[in-house]
Description:
Pfam families: Pyr_redox_3. There is one protein chain. The chain is of the alpha/beta class. It folds into two domains: 7-145 and 344-492, FAD/NAD(P)-binding domain; 154-218 and 255-339, FAD/NAD(P)-binding domain. It has helices spanning 16-27, 44-47, 79-92, 185-197, 221-229, 231-253, 256-273, 277-283, 300-304, 347-350, 362-367, 399-419, 432-444, 447-450, 472-480, and strands at 7-12, 32-35, 99-100, 104-111, 116-122, 128-138, 160-163, 177-181, 200-204, 211-212, 295-296, 309-312, 316-320, 323-326, 331-333, 336-339, 353-355, 384-386, 422-427, 487-492. The strands form five sheets. Strands 1, 2, 3, 4, 5, 6, 17 and 18 form an eight-stranded mixed β-sheet that branches. It has a five-stranded parallel β-sheet with strand order 7-16-8-9-12, covered by helices on one side. The protein is globular.
Amino acid sequence: MSARVDHDLVIIGSGFSGVGMAIAAKAAGRDYLVLEKADEIGGTWRDNRYPGCACDVPSHLYSFSFEPNPYWSRAYATADEIQDYLLFCVEKYGIREQVRFDSTVQQMTYDDGLGAWHLSVASSAGEIQHIVAGAVVLGVGALHDPVLPDIPGIEHYAGEVMHTAAWDVNATMFGKKVGIIGTGCSAVQAIPHLAEDATHLTVFQRTPVWVLPKLDPEFPEWLIDAYEKRPWLTKLHRARIKAYNEVRSLAFTKQPALLKAMSKVALHHMHSAVKDPELREKLTPSYTMGCKRITMSNTYFPTLARDDVTLETSSITGADATGLITADGTHHTLDAVVFATGFDVAGSYRHLDVTGLQGHRLADDWDAGIDSFYGVTVPHYPNLFFLLGPNTGLGHTSVLLMIEAQIRLIDTLLDERDKRGVTAVAVRPQIVPAHMAQIARRSDDTVWKSGGCNSWYLDERGENRSLWPESVIAYERKLARPDFVDYEFTGSAEF
């Protein structure tokens, strides 16, 4: 690398993606720097602190394969426990000293002559620093940029307002009349906890959600000891979970009959807790299971059946100083309003001011429906890599499996770039359209497009730009042995 380059690799974000990439970069002997906008390590699990926040992927699979954790306390870990695991990995692998906190990337511009990226980085105090990076990895994540609904008059509401993605951990709903908007994954987890404290909870539902029972036992001490003393048991358990979840992927992509069986389980689960036929009707989805993300809870339906909980299905038309107004004319007096309205999954990328070759701007390309190669590389942006980029999300298993496959690919491409003595590597623009056409064909057969719902899985045009429409094993296999003819290696390393 030229002396004009400050770091061989700059990693943006310090969630699982960023931490995993940093660990790999250190192992490879690269000069790397991690830029984190907040004041602590973490992404999704640092920012999402709402009551009941937990993972819907089994704990032993929601961890790095190279750092198994025998000490998980239960089948599905809470947000606190996952954040503790991530902090443990940071300390064990000694990467904290390479993390620069309070550092928000404002602008990135590719220098074709240098084969490097110029980054403008701002602190919360307004200080600006310029960094030149030989390569950049975007590990900015998708589940932290909250979406707020457009409710006329909400600016006049005088009560407490919070989004589940920006929860004040010191806040309490005790003794308050609380309204929560949304019934997605975050809401399903939060609603039972909010109901315990509130004098009355009103749940504003736009679309019913499919909810399966959650088999979430606490692990006994003897089992934790067994996992600690016999690591092969942990690996075996992890492999079993992965294999089971891969079978589930068939339900979304190739075997819809499996979804029918799962739907019957979900309906029985709901009917066993909700005896009121009118409430049952309101809670029964009209779309195919899997069209939206499937949720799991043992307490959601019993909570909605309580006398001090109201399910409101009339749409919200406005707000005033004391509450919300619904389309049927009802005024709901509330002391607090909670938005459980999800995330702008593309917002992290749309908000980045990134300019690549020939004046290409990432935000504009994203709005046009960005085309990527396996979600890791994008035409016209050399030495820029994405972790959990387009079409690499999952609806059935752990995204950490995807992250690790992507990190290995990035390592391979950077190694090959350096081996060839050049400064830049980028996917060939000519091969990406055929790849995206294959993604589109496979997506057409999935429940996400044919299930009869609107979800964040699909973009404004109804195209799948979020999820991987095959098995994780297929993805891992394809990234493990990249064909270098698919990439351009350019630029001289001599200056």
